[in-house]
Write a structure and sequence with these properties.
The protein has 3 helices and 5 strands. By secondary structure, the protein is of the alpha+beta class. The chain has a single domain, classed as 3-Layer(aba) Sandwich (Trna Endonuclease, Chain: A, domain 1). The chain starts with 12 loop residues before the first helix and ends in a 5-residue tail after the last strand.
Length: 136
């Protein structure tokens, strides 16, 4: 997979170290491109309610999918997958349920997926991992 090169034409590595927002947005952009390549259709990004946020809302076949994206530039605080705690899953489910009600999704299936973007080994070629249905 070809990723946008991490160069001066984008933000610098120092920019990402100083502020998590650009790093998060860059990670979410990469995740969207990756998900599209996997056949997902992106419907919404950064859906917020009081007490929660969903990074990406997408369709994968008949499923409505709520995707949490975590990017890490080092493993100082562990790999990206370790950020997915029971507390975080609880808040994601609450936010997903609001979204399902908002769009009148009814009894059709939905799930939570997780995309890990790991820049620790190579800042220009991150390792991307998709974990489907993190609640099962």
């Amino acid at each position: 997979m070809d990723y946008p090169e991490f160069t001066e034409s984008h933000l610098t590595y120092k920019d990402f170290c100083m502020d998590n927002k650009p790093a998060g947005n860059y990670g979410e952009d990469l995740a969207c491109e990756y998900l599209k390549q996997q056949g997902y259709k992106i419907l919404d990004r950064n859906y917020r309610i009081r007490g929660g946020e969903i990074d990406i809302v997408a369709k994968d076949g008949d499923y409505l999918v709520f995707v949490e994206v975590k990017s890490r530039w080092s493993h100082e605080y562990g790999p990206p997958s370790e950020s997915m705690t029971p507390w975080k899953i609880k808040h994601l489910l609450k936010t997903a349920q609001f979204y399902v009600q908002k769009i009148n999704w009814g009894e059709k299936p939905y799930r939570l997926d997780f995309v890990s973007i790991d820049f620790a080994e190579d800042k220009n070629n991150p390792k991307i991992e998709l974990i489907k249905n993190i609640t099962s």
